[in-house]
């Protein structure tokens, strides 16, 4: 039986991280899924919602629900966007209820729906994983991303000393409380650097843009890379930076 | 001027005017649970607070109490007037406190220690509860002396907090005591010994 | 009505107070050490109870029942306290509560009172009000004493002096305690110095003032949970006891304490049980104070109760677990929150209790507090009464947004963004307009952007927009 999947790329990944979305497509197709990318999608409305713009968020939620109507499973490479849809949409608008319970974050979809932890990936690098707050506490993905990473051939996984500590992104928090956000970022970067990993991975490009942006500013040489790109990498077609 | 009581009650009723009913309280937590040997657990948990704890035979209480007081070097002891007379012994000056002849605060403060029984004890948390009942006296008695020797009978020990709550009468003045007085106010680390008795010794009599 | 002292006069908005605090290296070290210690201990204390989650649910349900029937339980409490020899007073706000207490102290002919640590009396600024009335209030809790002697402000609900390490405390004691000029920085010695300093005060005080952790409606029993024994001293030795209690501290039955006496100690000091818990009912002849007054305090609580989402903040049992796990609190400390209620619970409680003070710096502070969070959710996870703090934060942010004028720059930007995002066509166009940013990039990254984006690029690079967005790629290859 083929599983039909609608990809919710998320506005940030679509705009700034197309490699991540392409990796999700490649990975899911390799695992036998048929992937669709509904054209009506834009943004889930999370930034508006979390900043207090509830009415604007409701508009975007209804639009998102409409874009994904009729799809059996919606997969997002983002714990916070999937969390927004699943946890908060029902309280925002009755018109969104259908999409909420069919939406999955990528690692959940792989482990819970497809039932795989070994996705046939190959990634010969030292990697550390940051569990993003919303994947952890809103969705409850638990150790699913770690189980997926442990099955990747060639990958050396080193754990952070305080993995569950927030990186300080927090959406508009990063600019509204930039000093506090930066202090949290500094501690997270120190933790990442102490592992000696060359790659930092997570299930959210938003947090990765924040931590990776800091690591890049300090020219640490540590790369922030979405989990999907590691899982999509194989011996035949290994991960390579887009020029 | 409006009566503050009426104003506050009116505000509450207005605030709740459109509220949906709340679901009933579900108490599916554990009231009792298998904690193994309650005496063992109680002794272990009291000791965790850095209190001294010993298990003794009921009939040997006078000897054991005397041994405790000697080890402590306590000579002037206070006790509630209804403390069993046969507990008191040794080369100790006893001052008894009771409703007819209450000891002064200064006298309590000068005493080397206080000997009492208790009402209930909780194994899981290593707690003794005083309710001003038999052999316990009023609250100040166990507060001012720096050393509190407390006799706990085996049948007074329950496993859990809910079991203890069920045995207690809240209208009596109650004091739950878990170890010697302590503070976590310096760097959030527990240090024993502030205003209450800095030394707690428990004799489990069985 | 005067201003509500729940916020400190002249406190700046959170971001700017945080900036100052973040620059204090000593403070950050002290906080990281203390919160790190307590987090690990709390997790272990909670893991011991197999029914922890069921206890949390029961705690939540009991408190929700209290709030839904608050008038019934308060009047029941009142009649029980009266029946057992106590006197009950009602106070609409801080000024009224302070006036009641001052009058009672004067009636007892005392010029000095001893105090047990109490958030309610800190919230109403009672010590300052008493001082104005010629009565000096002596804080007897060790951390409160450190704050009082250091002429400082509290920074934590449970441990108001958490921002001070042992060496700083030693210096404060040496400078202010007559007999502590040589005290060392060992915590045991510091505790001993406090004991010696306060002993005679306890033995001679005529009036004590306390707060209450719980009060049982059915029996009129009041509960104070503490560690040092200073609470027991205040509750038993003086002739007159005045207890100031927030309306929401009432619980319906004695049995309810079997839940809270498990939830509170493990959440706050991470102990199986705190050293001392005192329970008293009215006046007991021959044992303890001869006069007992209970002051029931509103001060913004009924206004908070009126908000269906926000009212869950009134479930709070003041354990501080949310502060100890909060990544923002850990960096900024408590004083940046400008109130006796810092941390995540402060960020939702202070704006609600202080609502109505919309003008000037206080209004600015109150509006900034709900944004003092990355919404990481760690606070909700540990809250013993399951207050969904992130939910209330977002709700209060929405309340702030609704009060903004239409021309507010942020509101305009947000409206524009949602207008763009509401149409796939406009969104694709906006994506194309970002393309030229590539010209600013070196090695795939942008290092500087103008304000307001500079608040991002001050500390983080931005990836250069790719040559082709994902949706463009999909259109081109899969169409």
UniProtKB/TrEMBL annotation, chain B:
Domain (LUD) spans 108-204
A Pfam family annotated for this chain is LUD_dom
Q: Which InterPro entries does UniProt cross-reference here?
A: FTHF_cligase-like_sf (IPR024185), LUD_dom (IPR003741), NagB/RpiA_transferase-like (IPR037171)
Residues passing through the membrane, by range:
none
Q: Output the SUPFAM superfamilies linked to this UniProt entry.
A: NagB/RpiA/CoA transferase-like (SSF100950)
Please state what the protein is called.
Lactate utilization protein C
Q: Which organism is it from?
A: Actinophytocola xinjiangensis
Read off the lineage from the record.
Bacteria, Bacillati, Actinomycetota, Actinomycetes, Pseudonocardiales
From TrEMBL, chain C:
One Pfam family name is: LUD_dom
Q: Which organism is it from?
A: Actinophytocola xinjiangensis
What is the designated name of this protein?
Iron-sulfur cluster-binding protein
Q: Tell me where in this chain the 4Fe-4S ferredoxin-type domain is found.
A: 307-336
SUPFAM superfamilies linked? alpha-helical ferredoxin, NagB/RpiA/CoA transferase-like
Q: Does the keyword Glycoprotein apply?
A: no
Give an example GO molecular function: 4 iron, 4 sulfur cluster binding
InterPro entries named among the record's database cross-references = 4Fe4S_Fe-S-bd (IPR017896), 4Fe4S_Fe_S_CS (IPR017900), FTHF_cligase-like_sf (IPR024185), Helical_ferredxn (IPR009051), LUD_dom (IPR003741), LutB/LldF (IPR004452), LutB_C (IPR024569), NagB/RpiA_transferase-like (IPR037171)
Source species, domain of life: Bacteria
PANTHER family referenced in this protein's UniProt entry, alphabetically: LACTATE UTILIZATION PROTEIN B
What are the record keywords, sorted?
4Fe-4S, Electron transport, Iron, Iron-sulfur, Metal-binding, Repeat, Transport
Q: GO biological process annotations for this chain's record?
A: lactate metabolic process
